[in-house]
Each structure stands twice: as C-alpha cells, then as structure tokens.
Amino acid sequence: MNDTTICAVGNVATQPMYRDLATGPSARFRLAVTSRYFDREKSVWTDGHTNFFTVWANRQLATNVAASLSVGDPVVVQGRLKVRTEVREGQPNWSSADIDAVAIGHDLARGTSAFRRANKQETAASPPRPEPNWETPGGDSAGDSDADSATRADSADQHRAEPLMVT
C-alpha cells in the first residue's frame, strides 16, 4: 500500500468523543505535537511550532481510547496520515491533517501507566464442527472391493463440514 504511516508523540488536546455507529465504535480527539529545541544562546529548551492532528480510532481501539485518555495526557499515536484540503467558509485551501490510528498508548517517558486488559465482547459460540478426515485411504485402490469403497464414501460424508450459518 502507498499509505503514509507516521508515529506522533504529543498531548491529547480535546476530550475524546466516542460514538457507537452502525459500523462499530468510533472515537476521535485532537493531538497537539510541539517540537522542542535547545536554544544555545539562552541555554534553555524552547518550544517550537505546534501541529494539531485529528486522531480517529475505530472498533476496540475506540472503546479503549474513550476509557483511557483525557485532556493533557502524553500519548504516542501510530497510524496512517491523511491530509485534506477544502474550501471552507469561503476561504480556499483550508487543510486538516488526520491520523487513522492503528495504535495509541501513553508516553511512558513522561509518566507511568497501569495497563488493564480489555474484556473481549462475548460473541455467539458457533456450533462445533466435525474435524474433516484428512487421511488418504491406504493400500492399493485397484484391489479394493465395492463394499470398502462404499464405506469410505459414507465416512467422507460424515466428515464433510456443513456451511456455517452466521446470525
């Protein structure tokens, strides 16, 4: 694929907005990423320009974002970068940078975090399916009797998997 994958380190700038959509859970928040550099003339660290990204999370990641993140949290976000340019409110060349997140986590270089494994949603258990018979009948097939062939055919029918119905 020709996606631009990035890793951004910054702070959560807005409270994550969680939505439960028909396609599944979705969450978004703004991420502020400020570069820092050492000013040798003043001998101090100085903040540079701040970039803002809209981070989108889907499915289980969205649920975990809503339960784990709040404004000001230092985070590391990995995902696909999408830059859009539009005409908005009569002003051309309005741009936004979005990150379709694959992974999000607290930045442990700036604090600690206690991890809790998320409970998996219970799905309807599928009925057990018989294991197919993968064994090749042994012996010379030319010397097999018709009764043996019929027995193998019945055995193969018993091991044929039924189509799985998803409800």
UniProtKB/TrEMBL annotation:
Database matches in HAMAP family: SSB (MF_00984)
Region (Disordered): 118-167
Superkingdom, taxonomy of origin: Bacteria
The protein's name in its UniProt record: Single-stranded DNA-binding protein
SUPFAM superfamilies found in the cross-reference section: Nucleic acid-binding proteins
Pfam families: SSB (PF00436)
InterPro entries: NA-bd_OB-fold (IPR012340), Primosome_PriB/ssb (IPR000424), ssDNA-bd (IPR011344)
Any one GO MF annotation of this record: DNA binding
Chain intervals with Basic and acidic residues compositional bias: 149-167
Keywords assigned: DNA-binding
Segments forming a coiled coil: none
Ranges of Low complexity composition bias in the record: 138-148
Alphabetized Gene3D superfamilies for the sequence: Nucleic acid-binding proteins (2.40.50.140)
Complex formation: Homotetramer.
